[in-house]
Amino acid sequence: MNQAAVQRRLQQFETLCRQRGLPLTVQRRDIFQAVLQSDDHPSADQVYDVVKDRIAGLSRTTVYRVLDTLVQLGVVRRLHHPGAAVRFDGRVDRHHHLVCRLCDQVVDVTGRDLDRLKPPRQRGGFLVEDYTIQFVGVCAACREETEA
Amino acid sequence: MNQAAVQRRLQQFETLCRQRGLPLTVQRRDIFQAVLQSDDHPSADQVYDVVKDRIAGLSRTTVYRVLDTLVQLGVVRRLHHPGAAVRFDGRVDRHHHLVCRLCDQVVDVTGRDLDRLKPPRQRGGFLVEDYTIQFVGVCAACREETEA
DNA sequence: CTCCGTGCAAAAGGTTTGCACTGGT
DNA sequence: ACCAGTGCAAACCTTTTGCACGGAG
């Protein structure tokens, strides 16, 4: 995400915190920023690695708790993907994922045509709010390895 | 899955094992059957709970290893969903999921129209083989609770 | 008979919890 | 000043690994 967009999201975040009376701590700001700035989908531990250099004495526990808060606020998404650890995504707009079934790598896909899907409003009482398409296959690197 | 379908899948499984020279053990048969018979998407531990009553002295380790084998054989799918533990799905045909973002419950959706999506054959060297759509929203039970 | 699969125990992550202290409002 | 947020350590849960034994091919 480019620097301008990151700044904008951070501003919105501050406003949101004030609205809800949520204390705006250094940890929350920096952790959110780290998620926004990472292009891949970092695990809690990867976020910790980045932020711990900026905040002395930062605890892993805090990273987990803050990430949870961000998810609840709706400014970050929890990602469910093949690796053991849960991943996080600063993008909350509609987008999709290519998942390599061999190396578990995940890359974003934005396809205008893919976003036009008409999700059923309801299915047996279930209220559908949004959707994500997971394309499963084999990435370029793994294809080369397999062919060799 | 109905009993007839379960039997059919088990037969295919036996054949597949013989073809590949994979020893067909009681554990593999029973664990596969348990996954097929469960309508939700059980975690390894839930599978263990079901099968341990049928096989005395069954080890959790074995459940994990057998599930892994089944995934590699392609007869079971690994599910990546909000709960901490990995889930498994005996269905390997194209189908989609409704995920409740409040209680993390997952239900299957089969929509003929949803299966007609033309996935891009390739995206930057990535070979797309199949896809799954995850609809995110709120389930009926959670909607009632929220409204109350 | 030969291996591969299994069971057990222990280790290795990832994530959560209890409690005292600090810092934002 | 008050209360929520944080740090630390320990607990907890899921998953993996090493090794010896037993059963399938």
Strand order of the largest sheet of chain A: 4-3-6-5
For the record, what is the CATH homologous superfamily label of the largest domain in chain A?
Answer: Winged helix-like DNA-binding domain superfamily/Winged helix DNA-binding domain
Oligomer: homodimer
Low-confidence stretches of chain A: none
Largest protein-protein interface = A-B, 35 and 35 residues
Please tell me what the overall shape of chain A is: globular
What does the radius of gyration of chain A come to? 17 Å
- Strand share of the residues of chain A? 15-25%
- How far is the N terminus from the C terminus of chain A? 35 Å
Query: Helix amount of chain A, in percent?
Result: 40-55%
The total domain count of chain A is 2
Order of helices and strands of chain A: HHHHEEEEEEH
How can the largest sheet of chain A be summarized? Answer: 4 strands, mixed
- Helix tally of chain A? 5
Number of distinct beta strands of chain A = 6
CATH fold field value of the largest domain in chain A: Arc Repressor Mutant, subunit A
* CATH architectural category of the largest domain in chain A: Orthogonal Bundle
Structural class of chain A: alpha+beta
Overall pLDDT score of chain A: 85
The top level CATH class name of the largest domain in chain A: Mainly Alpha
